[in-house]
Design goal:
alpha+beta; 154 residues; globular; single chain
């Protein structure tokens, strides 16, 4: 089994939701797998919405080489709390606010992601993020978003 570790992105950004006009937060982080840069993620936390749902853009692959975007793939996942866990749904890349960010690598459609040999890697990383990123975890538990260790940027 692989060993994952997390480095929190230094900032929390505040944005206005295009749908409802409420503010939401965006965080990012970096995942190492067996001591090598492996994944970058972005999460949007719509604390102005009644429903709790964290939207994750997760890229996996060769992150130790800045020029290796062609060796990375990414998916878009929505995470919602359930009675005793979290449920994840893979969406379409166009739903991500980061869909134009070329450094993430190849965007995988929902169908491609669910058939990809990387599917288990994506879900392993998503599970790890949800439990270990304090902003995402606290938000999904319905608590105040824990921003310790990050700077709020308006």
């Amino acid at each position: 089994m692989s060993v994952l570790s997390l480095e929190l992105g230094p900032e929390i950004a505040n944005f206005k939701c295009e749908c409802c006009g409420e503010l939401f937060k965006s965080v990012c982080g970096f995942i190492e797998k067996d001591d090598s840069a492996y994944s970058v993620y972005f999460a949007t936390l719509h604390n102005g919405h009644r429903e709790i749902a964290a939207n994750l853009t997760i890229s996996v692959g060769n992150w130790w080489d800045d020029n290796a975007a062609d060796e990375r793939s990414w998916i878009y996942v929505t995470v919602v709390p359930t009675a005793d866990d979290f449920a994840m749904t893979v969406g379409e890349p166009s739903e991500s606010r980061h869909h134009g960010y070329k450094a993430l690598g190849k965007a995988l459609s929902r169908d491609d992601a669910l058939q990809s040999p990387l599917k288990e890697d994506f879900f392993e990383v998503a599970d790890y993020i949800v439990v270990n990123d304090p902003a995402i975890h606290s938000y999904l538990l319905g608590e105040e978003i824990n921003i310790r260790g990050r700077v709020c940027k308006h």
